[in-house]
Design goal:
It is built from nine helices and eight strands. The protein is an alpha/beta fold. The protein has an eight-stranded mixed β-sheet with strand order 1-2-4-3-5-6-7-8, sandwiched between helices. Helix 3 links the parallel strand 3 and strand 4. Helix 2 packs across helix 3 and helix 4 packs across helix 5. It is globular, with a radius of gyration of 17 Å.
Length: 293
């Protein structure tokens, strides 16, 4: 990694002085994504369980394995379009087909809408005859938290677990109470606590931040599929990853965590610019290949 790589990313994700509206933030995220051209050979819009989704794959992808992906954006921002390039890179690294999910967003659709959509898509895959041992779940930031909420919901409904989950800087604690909110406060160029709490309010609505489907780090994690967690050492939400790993291990879950020096929140999204982003994607791909072999 060079200093120029980090400076380029920091410039792209710099926090504006005045907080934009939700519409402005959504537009800015779409504009940033447009800087990275779509890399996959194929994509196809579909509907799964009543939810808009998109298949993304290359000619080398296995047909029998699905990477079920939930994008980040604080449950208020983001879409398949904003994350299509990252999803394509992960699918290619894993050698599988990715199914990207356009779950409903807050504030128009607060909790539990996103969780309901995640469960609906997963249920539809199983009803199609997909083998859960050939379904890997992944997500970044809020999408990482949603991946966990799906797995918890599946367990409570006596549905089979997916074979594994890869979580990129997962947002798992809506209380914003982790140690890193103090220790990484000046290191993170992207996230500030006050603005994060605004997103929490938009998503949680009348629910509680202590609800395990809202803050999965507070859940009983026993019985969940193996987890791989990648996070950056310079992100405000670092404790959401490290605390999750500790609690998962204590619950008997097969969990592996890697914290990347100097990296920011969901640094993998900037893989065209950052060496570590490409390395992380390769390691996540290898994890999915191994678990779905």
């Amino acid at each position: 990694m060079s200093k120029a790589q980090i400076e380029a990313v920091a410039q792209m994700i710099a926090i504006p002085e005045e907080e934009p509206s939700v519409a402005e933030q959504r537009g800015a995220m779409e504009q940033m994504a447009a800087a990275f051209p779509f890399q996959a050979q194929h994509s196809e819009a579909v509907e799964m369980g009543g939810v808009s989704c998109e298949w993304i794959w290359d000619d080398t992808a296995r047909d029998d394995v699905v990477l079920l992906y939930f994008h980040g954006g604080g449950y208020c921002l983001g879409s398949i379009a904003t994350h299509r390039n990252l999803i394509a890179a992960l699918a290619k690294a894993a050698g599988v087909r990715a199914l990207a999910v356009d779950y409903r967003l807050a504030p128009e659709n607060p909790f539990p809408a996103a969780v309901e959509d995640a469960v609906a898509v997963y249920t539809a895959l199983l009803e199609q005859g997909r083998d859960p041992s050939k379904i890997a779940v992944a997500g970044d930031s809020a999408g990482g938290g949603l991946s966990l909420a799906l797995m918890l919901s599946a367990r409570e409904r006596d549905m089979p677990q997916p074979t594994c989950a890869a979580l990129l800087s997962p947002w798992t604690d809506m209380r914003a109470a982790g140690e890193s909110f103090q220790t990484r406060r000046d290191a993170d160029p992207m996230i500030v606590r006050d603005r994060l709490l605004v997103m929490v309010g938009r998503y949680v609505g009348a629910a509680s931040t202590a609800d395990p489907l809202v803050s999965p780090v507070l859940a009983d994690l026993s019985g969940l599929a193996p987890l791989l967690i990648h996070a950056g050492d310079a992100e405000l939400l670092l404790s959401d990853s490290t605390d999750l790993a500790k609690r998962a291990e204590a619950a008997g879950v097969d969990v592996e965590i890697k914290v990347w020096d100097d990296m920011v929140h969901v640094f993998q999204a900037f893989y065209p610019l950052v060496d570590e982003g490409r390395e992380s994607i390769a390691e996540i791909g290898a994890f999915i290949r191994e678990r779905t072999a």
